[in-house]
Amino acid sequence: MKVICFGDSNTYGYDPRSYFGGRYDADSRWVDILAAKTGWEVRNMGQNGREIPSAAPAIPAGTDLLIVMLGTNDLLQGRSPEQAAERLERFLAGITLDRGRILLIAPPPVALGQWVPSPQLIADSHAFAQLCQALAEQLGIRFADAGKWDISLTYDGVHFTEQGHRAFAAGLLEELR
Fold this sequence. Notes:
By secondary structure, the chain is of the alpha/beta class. It contains 6 helices and 5 strands; from the N terminus they run βααββααβαβα.
């Protein structure tokens, strides 16, 4: 099975303890854990700082599953949950892949930390997850809410810890069963 994981720094595997965009080791990144546990060919298209793009990327022919998790950076940049959901709708509508091959994951809610100074951002991240679920239903694509997977975050309130990546992988594997 060929899988593409399209997202931001939590898909990339960013380690916030590094100053130059370093990553956790492969055995601690959810994308690589997914590949190891399933034997699937999994391509990591995570990028640090990625906001929801205005246009969908070209998805290679033969892709069996596209996993999309975006939106946290949009909220951190001051967009409302509704504005982020509108961007996400435009992005997803531009993907030419069969709808049954797309899995939209609502990012886990942020927590108070170095990058999350206000409770409003936390509330916005919860609201965004609900909007993602409604959007998935509207577009007829699969949906998972990572907020239900007990993902531990680092001191910044945004990035997964190594244990958080393992919890994310476990939640995702359960969702894909």
